[in-house]
Amino acid sequence: MGRDRGPRAATVVHVKAIRRFSVRPVLPEPLRPLSELARNLRWSWHPETRELFQNLDPEGWRAADGDPLRLLGAVPAARLAALAEDRRFRRRLAAAADDLHDYLTGNRWYQEQPAGLPAAIAYFSPEFGITAALPQYSGGLGILAGDHLKSASDLGVPLIGVGLLYRHGYFRQSLSREGWQQEHYPLLDPNELPLSLLREADGSPSVIALALPGGRALRAQVWKAEVGRVPLLLLDSDVEENAGGERDVTDRLYGGGSEHRLLQEMLLGIGGIRAVRAYCRLTGHPAPEVFHTNEGHAGFLGLERIRELASDGVEFDAALESVRAGAVFTTHTPVPAGIDRFDRGLVARHFADDAELPGIDPDRVLALGAEDYPGGDPALFNMAVMGLRLAQRANGVSTLHGQVSREMFAGLWPGFDADEVPITSITNGVHAPTWVAPEVFRLGARRVGAGRTEDALALGGSDRWDSIAEISDADVWELRRTLREQLVEEVRERLRASWRERGAGTAELGWIDGVLDPDVLTIGFARRVPSYKRLTLMLRDRERLTRLLLDPERPLQIVVAGKAHPADDGGKRLVQELVRFADDPAVRHRIVFLPDYGMAMAQKLYPGCDVWLNNPLRPLEACGTSGMKAALNGCLNLSVLDGWWDEWYEPDFGWAIPTADGSGTDEDRRDDLEAAALYDLLAERVAPRFYDRGPDGLPGRWIEMVRSTLASLGPKVLAGRMVREYVGRLYHPAAEAQRALVPDAARELAAWKARVRAAWPGVAVDHVETVSEGPLNGTAELGSTAALRVSVALGGLDPSDVEVQALAGRVDTADRLTGTSAFPLKPAASPALDGRLLYEGSLTFDRTGPFGYTVRILPAHRLLAQGTEMGLVAAPAEASGEAAGVLMR
């Protein structure tokens, strides 16, 4: 026998499970409704439901980070048994369950509209920010998509959301001791998320398949999240039937190389349509009439819809017209570099006969994404260009961004000024019930009633927001201090955790107890960290910033957060620069950087700040919704006039940072000028107004700005307003166009377009003459008229195929028409002697100053959304008639 050699050091063995299960709790029968309440994500914006879960186990709620599913998995059985016997808790539970049932089944705004709205709309996005408990977002695009779904639910809009399920989400951010960003990718188990698997009638998972080159296949199962009334379908390629490379297609958001991204976008677009079809087949949900592509990542959905029609015998051109009619495309990027572009050869390989969409000519696919316009790259396939060509209706996400988008994509509509490019704009909004702090909601409910407050947040309407005037200055100021105090506590807790991750010991961190002050003017800055958002503009003059932070009478404090893309070392250097400044013991109690910016942090950060700072390079901020979320909590905006702030800024509720955009200003000079303007505003306008107190000890003028922010901006920045605009301006017209484009009508339109394009080289304005009431001589009297006679050649087209227009407006120094209005000319009773067609009309001189007109010919058909749609126009040659302008006095 061997001797006992005494205790030995334990050997650490890392054992990996070969299979993973999620063991769910068995709830007592009286508590079964808790499961439905936890699985419908309405809890994330419904205070009463969250309070119910919090009261179930307050400590467990905090440990679960406010996630009801995690909470239910951790509550002791004894506690559940006690609650099952608690009549008061059961009554609250029954009330919450009844409220959810009424919310899901009752008529809402959409159901009260006149008939004709779409039976359903499919909404595709590469990311969705619904709640921190479902981390499938990276930034503004995903948060906007989540807010769109939640507001559609509140309004009763029959949306189906479609995205991908990323097993590692985006990434979690931490800092090294030196302040360098580090990325972590925790594995997400769908069984532990608020999701359910879409199953066939026999109980097996519903599987979507795409064909890949070489006889391979990409398969995905479909998970469903319940976002109130809206189902969100998320495709997941991590299934056993896939090979390793295909399993990893949905591994992480915005990761991988070019082919990896292409496969993600094919799965999102093509697979997403197939997932929607499966969902509607299995549940009886109405089939979508409108398909909304939120940015170009999902653009391939149009190709799958063309394939569906082709399989029913509809030719490609007719199918294209039908697909365009029911499609809406929203662009979010203001710069070409922000668009996904792929090598044409790579795309061609994935749409060859042995891969996806067999039977469709790959050259037709490539033509949809071709950059065949001046300045384009013929070697690349452009996802946004394809999105625009596959959608009859398109929009940017603010008024300024709509203008930028029209200029950026003008090459797709040659012959038209950018102002006439058919891209409109609908300014983004934010889902107020998600972003308004409970304290703000309770104050409103106390003053005007909970129902009226809920309506104001969900539906908007200035009449619902005017009641803010009834709230006293003292109540407003007490609310603001409470929110600031909560932020200070949150910042200290997060900062302490961050420093521990950076390797600091407890003995080093006593100073954190003095970080920030609940009575000091607090500025927030949080967003992604691409260079154009200028995270470090505030550091341009560090000495001046330090003086502002440490001012003995009017100090500032700044809370900063943001993630750089893992592949963006330039962005990481900006983060490190900010972190190192904030680490300085001289200022670290006044400026902090919080890592791992996400929804949970944002919901504390926006309400607790007094001023929200935004200083992008104008006009590169498409919308910038973070300032909207802050505004809904009474936070004032200090921003460059870009995105939404450009169209809604007023001095009553914020400040505008001047833009140094002169053509002779280099980048360094521009940043110096704009940083100096920022410092001046903080020192001379913002801080004095915050610290200027009246006899009652309150900053009356500041409180008035808070009140103006809530009353004036509140109704505008709501996602409810945004979704109603989408319904009225885009979804409803798209549904009507889709219904009109039955196969025979689509064939007719496709044939007509082909005939018009073939004949267009022969279409011309030959001669223009003006017959006035009196002599023109380069001038005309206001209110006088002139008769126009125009001779045109139609190249064999019928007059019904075109519209001949006069286009009148102001003339600039280069003879360009601006602020134009168009009116049609009518065919004359008889043609000209040479057989040319004559058109006539009258021109009224309705404004003073330099005035001009021209004449043009556009295609015209009842099924076109607008005359510019085809990008065809015929205008006068230089010698076709009289000068195209008269000077009015």
TrEMBL record:
The keyword Transmembrane does not apply. It catalyses: [(1->4)-alpha-D-glucosyl](n) + phosphate = [(1->4)-alpha-D-glucosyl](n-1) + alpha-D-glucose 1-phosphate. InterPro entries: Agluc_phsphrylas, Glyco_trans_35, Glycogen/Maltodextrin_Phosph, Glycogen_phosphorylase_DUF3417, Pyridoxal_P_attach_site. Its cofactor is pyridoxal 5'-phosphate. The keyword Lipid metabolism does not apply. Keywords: Allosteric enzyme, Carbohydrate metabolism, Glycosyltransferase, Pyridoxal phosphate, Transferase. Its EC number is 2.4.1.1. Residues 27-134 form the DUF3417 domain. It comes from the Bacteria. Belongs to the glycogen phosphorylase family. Phosphorylase is an important allosteric enzyme in carbohydrate metabolism. Enzymes from different sources differ in their regulatory mechanisms and in their natural substrates. However, all known phosphorylases share catalytic and structural properties. This is glycogen phosphorylase.
